[in-house]
Amino acid sequence: MSTGTGPASLGSASRTAPAGGLQVDQLRGFRIGVTSDRRSEDLIAALERRGAAVTHAPALRIARNEQDGALVRETRQLIAAQPEVILITTGYGMRRWFEVADAAGLGGELTAVLEQAKIFARGPKAIGAVRAAGLVDAEASAADTTASLVDSVIAAGLTGRRVAIQLHGFTDETQLARLRELSEAVLTVTPYRWMPPVAPERLHRLIEAVAQRQVDALIFTSAPGAAATLATADHLGLADAFLAALSGPTVAAAVGPVTAEPLVAVGVRPVMPLRYRLGALIRLVCEELSERHVVRYRFGEVRIEVSGRNVAVDGRHVLLGPNALVLFTALANSNAVVSRAELSRGLPEPLIDHAVEVAVSRLRRALDVPGLITTVVRRGYRFNGQLVTPDADWRSDD
């Protein structure tokens, strides 16, 4: 949960991240959710190296198609049909298709068919996979979408032809129907498909934590994963709280506009890197959290900096638990006395008055700044620190 007063999202427009090497403590105290399956290890490792606490809860998983038998049959049908136009939607799908074809002894025949066809590829990863297969005559679509692939076929005057399309596990039925309307015949190959995660309860817990504003950033790397996460939040009855968090304190981050589409459709404006790459996404999340979700206070000569769950008091780091962080945030964000009842209502699990007193006492001991949080008899508690605005020099006493 970010305690910042600024917006968690700067809109769906792409932004760049500053150059720079690894900063080990850059994400200290921040909690980040990762919803991806494939390549999640690289993403998680990069975030943890920078100090983040990462919760991994795949929204979907990639599954191979019935021990590859279906894909082999589709490949044989494609070779026999000799399509004149072939559409490649994902780099991973292209690579996996050729791995299975080679294992079945069909690699040479498949290559020969693709060499004589006009190839359109969706995005740079798909283009790279096509070239890695030794096929250099491929044209990139104008945008990284299946709709753009179909537009490319029309723009090239290739309607009325035999067409094959490599699907990517989450079929765009609208564009597939459109392709069938303008083609003589359409063949499909599906190297992989999306399936529910093995442990769906992990995603449930992550969604609940986001809804309770206990997560600082949630990262999406595929449109199907984003759509599945939103559907699961709705199934749990947490859609409103989940979307409110993603539009407020929790940074929603998407690797590119295609991934962002399900989020944008429900009013969430995720941050995105200019280059739709995992490394660029990681740098952007680091920038967003470390530069825009750090809050600073002054209390006399004491300087207090809040980064997620981490509170640095004159350089001394204190890691707050969920309840302690909620209490600190409620007190620090108020310019008035906060009652015990108000503090209790904001906690993940409300406490009775005495338990609130104990929790506040523990918070005071953890911060060890006498006078920062004072008791107002019969009324509640008051935070006496002064918020330092982002454009101010918090080291100054002026």
Helix content: 40-55%
What is the top-level CATH class of the largest domain?
Answer: Alpha Beta
Topology, number of strands: 20
CATH topology of the largest domain: Rossmann fold
Kindly provide the radius of gyration, computed on alpha-carbon positions and rounded to a whole number of angstroms: 26 Å
Largest sheet composition: 5 strands, parallel
Q: State the separation between the terminal residues, measured CA to CA.
A: 30 Å
Give me the side-by-side strand order of the main sheet.
7-6-5-8-9
Shape: elongated
Oligomer: single chain
- Tally of alpha and pi helices: 15
What percent of residues are in strands?
15-25%
Low-confidence stretches: 1-20
Number of domains: 3
Structural class: alpha/beta
CATH architecture of the largest domain: 3-Layer(aba) Sandwich
Note down, in words, how this protein is organized.
- The chain folds into three domains: 14-60 and 196-292, Rossmann fold, CATH 3.40.50; 63-192, Rossmann fold (3-Layer(aba) Sandwich); 294-388, Winged helix-like DNA-binding domain superfamily/Winged helix DNA-binding domain (Arc Repressor Mutant, subunit A), CATH 1.10.10.
- Helices cover 41% and strands 20% of the residues.
- It contains 15 helices and 20 strands.
- The strands form six sheets. Strands 7-6-5-8-9 form a five-stranded parallel sheet, sandwiched between helices. Strands 17-16-15-14-20 form a five-stranded antiparallel sheet.
- It has helices spanning 40-49, 69-81, 91-103, 107-116, 124-132, 146-155, 173-182, 200-211, 223-235, 239-246, 257-265, 278-292, 322-332, 340-346, 353-367; strands spanning 14-15, 31-34, 53-56, 61-64, 85-88, 118-121, 138-140, 162-166, 185-189, 192-195, 217-220, 251-254, 272-273, 294-299, 302-307, 310-313, 316-319, 373-376, 380-383, 386-388.
- It has 398 residues and is α/β, with parallel strands linked by helices.
- Mean pLDDT is 88; it is low at 1-20.
